[in-house]
């Protein structure tokens, strides 16, 4: 998904975490609705500038694909941890941080900062590029 397509999803009201997970939905065996619902609370670094929502969406996708669910299969946890580390390494190599606050240069937990992000055009320019790149990295790791 290119930057423009991501920006269009943002204009429809979807957050970065939702766009990432919804793009993986078919591959993960879930509906786009389920993907959007389960990732809805994570946009904007959970709304407080913590871990980038796109990264969280990717983590959910990796967990659904590689996560362990049985104590008899703890070797799967090693697989999951390896996939997570691979994704994080590639993302931080490109962006230097997984923190929404660091990526944007603004703290969304501070009143008025979101408005500055909008004024600077980051939400519809920088963030869509981050989501597009996240999807590319996730494709390599999945």
Give a summary of the structure in a few sentences:
With 142 residues, the chain is mainly α.
Overview of the structural elements:
- It is a single chain.
- This protein has one domain (3-141).
- It has 142 residues and is mainly alpha-helical.
- It has 9 helices and no strands.
- The radius of gyration is 15 Å and the shape is globular.
Element layout with pairings:
Blueprint: H1 3-11, H2 16-28, H3 32-38, H4 43-49, H5 53-66, H6 75-95, H7 100-104, H8 113-119, H9 126-141
Helix pairs in contact: 1-9, 2-3, 2-5, 2-9, 5-6, 5-9, 6-9
Low-confidence stretches: none
The total of beta strands comes to: 0
Helix content: 55-70%
* Number of helices, where a helix is a run of at least 4 consecutive DSSP H or I residues: 9
Category from helices, strands and their pairing: mainly alpha
Radius of gyration: 15 Å
What does the largest sheet look like? none
The coarse silhouette is globular
Averaged pLDDT: 94
- Strand composition percent: under 5%
H/E element order: HHHHHHHHH
Total discrete domains: 1
What is the terminal separation in angstroms? 16 Å
List keywords for this structure.
9 helices
């Amino acid at each position: 998904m290119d930057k423009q397509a991501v920006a269009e999803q943002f204009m429809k009201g979807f957050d970065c975490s939702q766009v990432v997970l919804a793009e993986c939905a078919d591959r993960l065996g879930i509906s786009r609705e389920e993907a959007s619902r389960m990732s809805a609370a994570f946009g904007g670094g959970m709304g407080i500038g913590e871990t980038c929502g796109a990264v969280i969406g990717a983590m959910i996708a990796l967990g659904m694909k590689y996560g362990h669910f049985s104590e008899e299969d703890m070797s799967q946890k090693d697989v999951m941890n390896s996939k997570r580390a691979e994704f994080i390494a590639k993302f931080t190599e490109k962006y230097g941080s997984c923190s929404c606050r660091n990526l944007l240069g603004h703290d969304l937990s501070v009143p008025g900062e979101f408005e500055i992000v909008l004024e600077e055009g980051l939400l519809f320019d920088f963030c869509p590029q981050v989501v597009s790149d996240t999807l590319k990295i996730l494709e390599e790791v999945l």
